[in-house]
Amino acid sequence: MGCTSCTTVANGQPRGCKNNGTCGSDGCNKLTVFDWLSNMSLPGNVEPFNGVEVRFKNGRKHFYKNPENIALSIGDVIATEASPGHDIGIVTLTGELVRVQMKKKKLTAKFDELPKIYRKASQKDIDVWQKVRDKELDVQKQSREIAMRLGLQMKISDVEFQGDASKVIFYYTAEERVDFRQLIKEFARTFSTRIEMKQVGFRQEAARLGGIGSCGRELCCSTWLTDFRSVNTSAARYQQLSLNPQKLAGQCGKLKCCLNYELDTYLEALDEFPRTDIKLNTEKGRAQCQKIDIFKGLMWFSYENEGMNWHELEVAKVNEIVALNKKGLNATSLEDYIEEKIIPDKEIFNNVVGQDSLTRFDQPKRRNKRRNKNKGSGRNQNRNRSKGGNKNQNRRHKNIT
């Protein structure tokens, strides 16, 4: 769902549309919704829904009503109601699917309270909008310098101008409450416009800025994830992951949202397992759990006095021992419940496509004996020659003297 030839150039803009996510096809925008009802016609006695979904900077979306019944399609640039003035956005969804989206976000009952659409944006509106958007990076840099000069413990992560340049919104993150009354005065004096401060969470900041995760793909929060569920360290424990904050934390500094993706599957598989802190009573001694494999259904136990010797048991066998212990009986030993598994011999590597042997580096190189013999004979000849030459020189020296 991208533009044709939508590769990036040196400045990061798409090579095809050069709009950096604001193209008319709405194919390379994040959080894009596919309108699967666009090719279907409404029944004759049903009026089309006049709600519209409009996207602004960084995937920010709002719903608007269209009281004038302006003919709109996906990708149109429109002027919407704002406080004060008007804002410029891009239509991302029209028709009956807007009703479905509003129902999903529980906004159907508040349709009459929605702001309205003024008109399609004129060329003058678009020029003003593009001009103020080009100033956002410089404004963000100046605002950070002012905040650092005032000694405020906050980070201004993003700046967004309203479409008519009558207001600028500063998005910031902070650990504690910040008194930015003096900061607003400085901003109003420097930028000569209405100032609005919005505090966002660290997850929302990562969603607005985007990036590449440790999996090598674009961040879920900046592409398709719309709701942020709380993530606890118990999710990592249930999945048998090491509690390493450097590996479990995302770019926002919080636990990764993907820890919740497979959590339900792990919890469902753990229903058959007994608690890991349970101890098995046997005639040979008490045994405690050392390790579990959830999807293979295996548990490893060791006796309290033999901590290094682990015994592999299936979950069904462990449940049998637990049932005996509940009746006040002891199992004979863990070894009696171990089932011997016959592992068939399989070839580790098959050279089916003419690949080299995997053990070719394990064999020592064979030396060519003939070459070694020739080298040895040549050395001996040179030695003999050198010896003979030395004897002749000595004889000549004697004759001369």
What labels would you give this structure?
5-stranded antiparallel sheet; 4-stranded antiparallel sheet; GMP Synthetase, Chain A, domain 3; elongated; alpha+beta; disordered C terminus; 401 residues
Please give the structural blueprint.
Blueprint: E1 51-55, E2 61-65, E3 77-81, E4 86-94, H1 96-104, E5 117-120, H2 123-134, H3 136-149, E6 155-161, E7 167-173, H4 181-191, E8 194-199, H5 202-209, H6 220-223, H7 233-238, H8 245-248, H9 263-269, E9 279-282, E10 285-293, E11 298-303, E12 311-314, H10 315-326, H11 369-400
Parallel strand pairs: 7-8
Antiparallel strand pairs: 1-2, 1-4, 3-4, 3-5, 6-7, 9-10, 10-11, 11-12
Helix pairs in contact: 3-4
Architecture overview:
By secondary structure, this protein is of the alpha+beta class. Among the domains are: 51-121, no CATH class; 131-200, GMP Synthetase, Chain A, domain 3, CATH 3.30.300.20; 206-269, no CATH class; 273-337, no CATH class. The protein has eleven helices and twelve strands. The radius of gyration is 37 Å and the shape is elongated.
User: How much of the polypeptide forms β-strand, as a percent range?
Assistant: 15-25%
Number of strands: 12
Query: How does the overall form come out from the CA principal axes?
Result: elongated
Number of helices: 11
Calculate the mean pLDDT score and round it: 81
Helix content: 25-40%
The SS-based structural class is alpha+beta
What profile does the largest beta sheet have?
5 strands, antiparallel
Summarize the helix and strand pattern as letters. Answer: EEEEHEHHEEHEHHHHHEEEEHH
For the termini, the CA-CA separation is 102 Å
Low-confidence stretches: 20-27, 396-401
Q: Radius of gyration from the CA trace?
A: 37 Å
Q: Strands across the major sheet, in which order? A: 2-1-4-3-5
